[in-house]
Amino acid sequence: MEYSIDLQRFWHDPYPDLAAMQALAPVVYVPQLDAALITRRVDVFAQEKRVDIFSSRQPRGLMNQLMGENMMRKDGDAHQEERRQIFPSLSPRTVMQVWRAEFERATQLVLDELKDRQEFDLVWDFAMQVSGAALVAITGLRQMTPTKMDEVSQAMIDGCANYLADQKVTQACNLATADIDAHITGMLGEVKANPNTSVLSVLLQAGQPIDDIKANIKLVISGGQNEPRDAIAGTAAAVLMHPLAREQLRQSVEWGQAFKEYTRWMSPIGMSPRQISGDCTVLGYDFKQNDRVFFMFGAANRDHSVFESPELFDLNRDNGPAIPFGAGPHFCAGAAVSRVLIAEVALPKLFNA
């Protein structure tokens, strides 16, 4: 089944087209993206786990070309080993025992800077600074400013989504990755002399090769800046636009519920690309080896067969079936970091300031 999109319209608001694809078939080929899209929640949840068919390994993929082969682009034992190596930095225990205090200090510093202003930009003056400072600490790249962290992260994200091969986008991404490499090199001596719980330090302690360390730190930066930034600002904006939600948060509802509902409503991971390992038929669709497939988490989290009025932001909703951080072996390693940073620190501090 084929479905055509207007690229500009899809970029600005993909949800109408994604809903139409869900209604059309389990798998829909979109020629403008040269990819087959899987959009229904039940199918995304089940098929993402089938890494023997839907492989994360994409040697010619943009992420590999621009950032190096990180653990997100590996399957099986190779993926699990690198995930195990990075875990001491991102585990729920480390988040609570180490990073939460860093998040609280960083957030308070930003709020202190903003307290005398009559107005400020929620994204750039607050959310970007908070998420950037958190990521500087977590990665161990402490010579980098939050603003620079945001800049290099966005350039890499744009590069990895540059399916139209815009050379300016590619050049900006290459500059960003070179900048990150320079910061990693600049911190090697410090973290070797004084090991800590940063990603750079724990991967060095695990004996991971330096090229893999660089690729995995770029992975952490590519998803660890824009997604928390946008979720902090987006959840705050959603609450401000919904008087009932504001009142519920004053009375009884916890910020964790607001965060869960926002990440269902506006999925931080909109999609995840895969490559078909060999000719096969899945969900009635005939795939060929090396076909490109997109698992559409944003669509899955607005599936009308699972969520009533999914286009609405509703704090009364049971959002348990949502899969904002993935559903398989590539479940986001930074999920615990995001929950604590956003729902337990940044948003409560912002609204109580």
User: What is the name of the CATH topology?
Assistant: Cytochrome p450
Provide the spatial order of strands within the biggest beta sheet: 1-2-7-4-3
Mean pLDDT equals 93
> Which sequence of SSEs, written as H and E, runs from N to C?
HHEEHEHHHHHHHHHHHEEEEHH
CATH superfamily: Cytochrome P450
Radius of gyration: 20 Å
List the domain count as a whole number.
1
Shape: globular
**Broad structural category:** alpha+beta
Q: Largest sheet, if any?
A: 5 strands, mixed
CATH architecture: Orthogonal Bundle
Distance between the termini: 52 Å
Low-confidence stretches: none
Number of helices: 16
> Which CATH class is shown?
Mainly Alpha
In total, the number of strands is 7
Estimate the strand proportion: 5-15%
Helix content: 55-70%
Core attributes:
353 residues; alpha+beta; Cytochrome p450; five-stranded mixed beta sheet; two-stranded antiparallel sheet; 16 helices
Briefly say what this structure is.
This protein is of the alpha+beta class and about 350 residues long.
Written overview of the protein:
The chain has 353 residues and is of the alpha+beta class. It has one domain (7-352): Cytochrome P450 (Cytochrome p450), CATH 1.10.630. 59% of the residues lie in helices and 7% in strands. It contains 16 helices and 7 strands. The strands form 2 sheets. A 5-stranded mixed sheet has the order 1-2-7-4-3. A hairpin with a 2-residue loop joins β5 (280-282) and β6. α6 (92-114) runs parallel beside α16, α12 (226-241) crosses α16 and α14 crosses α16. The longest helix has 27 residues, at 167-193. It starts with 6 loop residues before the first helix and ends with a helix.
